[in-house]
């Protein structure tokens, strides 16, 4: 049982990190294609990621402790189709003519191994048909390739990490894994009877919204801020003012509302008229960038300086100002998100908002 629990536990440990890495590219893809990230579609996608990780670890783990030949005969490839039937018949206590003995199969390693391979990629067949809309031929072919990848990974000792293969390359595994994907394709209607049509979910996403949603705005801003941060590493406040002025004011002015982040997520800034004015952008980012971020940076610098010279009376005042500023911004954003109000303070002052395109 540990042979199956260890891979699942490992997948649970690594999944949050993989999901965090994939979340931004996934969000960019969905925002560009559908205009919004749908909760059900997101859940299905990341459940698929977790399943693939678990299936991979089930074929990979546990890793050998000692890098030495693990198959005494030195034969690492089994190319006889349906050899698993012979293995089961040779070792089983079940009698074909007596159904009461069939339960013995579930305590016999040869049968359990074959059963495991026959269901390992069954969920993949379901995902391919339901979520990715693949036909039967594509499902069988993709399932075969995934199974082949697992087998080659084992045969090559994880592509050279180990000197010797630590598991047998078995053609029966390919047959049973591919069959499991085929079976998953066949039983998919049992799940689609419960789950909504994924095409209707996507169509619903596309039809929603004029103003950009807060998650979409946040992701776009994070992308833009990461780009700016590359240049902000080379200087202090003066560099901060110059870089942010060019990126957040001049670039949107000449592109009529676009930054890299906004372009990636198919959104732009729009004022009362078709053409953004320089003054509108100066007002907007004067509040957002210089009113909040620059002020925070100055307060942080002052806090560090006062701490170094041990002026704790003034340090307390600066700390209170920092907390008050951050608390105000936090409450302001959260309250607008709860009310589904897309117009924040810097939007209202400038008359410029984020819209989907």
Describe the 3D structure.
- The chain is mainly alpha-helical and 357 residues long.
- It has two domains: 2-204, no CATH class; 209-356, no CATH class.
- The chain is built from 15 helices and four strands.
- The strands form two sheets. A two-stranded parallel sheet has the order 1-2.
- The chain crosses the membrane at residues 6-28, 40-63, 110-128, 140-162, 174-194, 214-232, 238-255, 276-294, 314-334.
Uncertain regions: pLDDT < 50 for 5+ in a row?
none
Oligomer: single chain
The count of β-strands is 4
Sheet with the most strands: spatial strand order: 1-2
Helix content: 55-70%
Distance N to C terminus: 52 Å
Number of domains: 2
Q: How much is the radius of gyration in Å?
A: 29 Å
SSE topology:
Elements lengths: L1 H33 L4 H22 L16 E2 L4 H9 L17 H11 L2 H9 L5 H20 L1 H4 L8 E2 H22 L5 H9 L7 H19 L4 H19 L4 H5 L2 E4 L7 H31 L3 H27 L6 H6 L2 E4 L1
Parallel strand pairs: 1-2
Antiparallel strand pairs: 3-4
Helix pairs in contact: 1-2, 3-4, 4-8, 5-6, 5-8, 6-8, 10-11, 11-13, 13-14
């Amino acid at each position: 049982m540990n042979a199956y629990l260890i891979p699942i536990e490992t997948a649970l440990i690594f999944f949050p990190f993989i999901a965090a890495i994939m979340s931004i590219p996934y969000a960019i893809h969905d925002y560009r294609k559908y205009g919004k990230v749908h909760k059900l579609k997101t859940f299905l996608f990341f459940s698929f990621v977790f399943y693939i990780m678990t299936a991979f670890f089930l074929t990979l783990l546990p890793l050998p402790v000692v890098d030495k030949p693990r198959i005494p005969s030195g034969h690492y490839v089994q190319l006889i189709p349906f050899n698993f039937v012979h293995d089961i018949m040779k070792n089983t206590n079940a009698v074909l003519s007596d159904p009461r003995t069939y339960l013995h199969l579930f305590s016999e390693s040869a049968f359990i191994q074959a059963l495991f391979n026959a269901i390992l990629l069954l969920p993949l067949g379901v995902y391919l048909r339901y979520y990715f809309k693949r036909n039967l031929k594509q499902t069988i072919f993709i399932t075969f390739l995934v199974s082949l990848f697992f087998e080659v990974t084992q045969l090559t000792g994880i592509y050279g990490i180990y000197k010797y293969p630590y598991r047998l390359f078995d053609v029966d595994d390919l047959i049973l894994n591919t069959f499991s994907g085929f079976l998953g394709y066949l039983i998919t209607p049992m799940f689609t009877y419960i789950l909504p049509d994924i095409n209707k979910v996507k169509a619903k996403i596309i039809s929603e919204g004029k103003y950009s949603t807060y998650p979409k705005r946040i992701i776009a801003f994070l992308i833009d801020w990461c780009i700016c941060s590359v240049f902000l590493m080379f200087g202090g406040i003066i560099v901060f003012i110059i870089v942010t002025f060019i990126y957040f004011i001049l670039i949107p002015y000449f592109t009529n509302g676009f930054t890299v982040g906004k372009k990636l997520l198919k959104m732009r800034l729009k004022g009362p008229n078709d053409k953004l004015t320089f003054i509108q952008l100066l007002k907007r980012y004067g509040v957002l960038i210089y009113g909040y971020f620059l002020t925070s940076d100055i307060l942080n610098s002052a806090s560090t300086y006062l701490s170094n010279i041990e002026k704790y009376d003034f340090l307390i005042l600066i700390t209170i100002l920092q907390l008050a500023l951050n608390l105000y911004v936090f409450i302001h954003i959260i309250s607008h998100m709860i009310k589904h109000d897309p117009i924040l303070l810097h939007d209202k002052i400038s008359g410029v908002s984020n819209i989907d395109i």
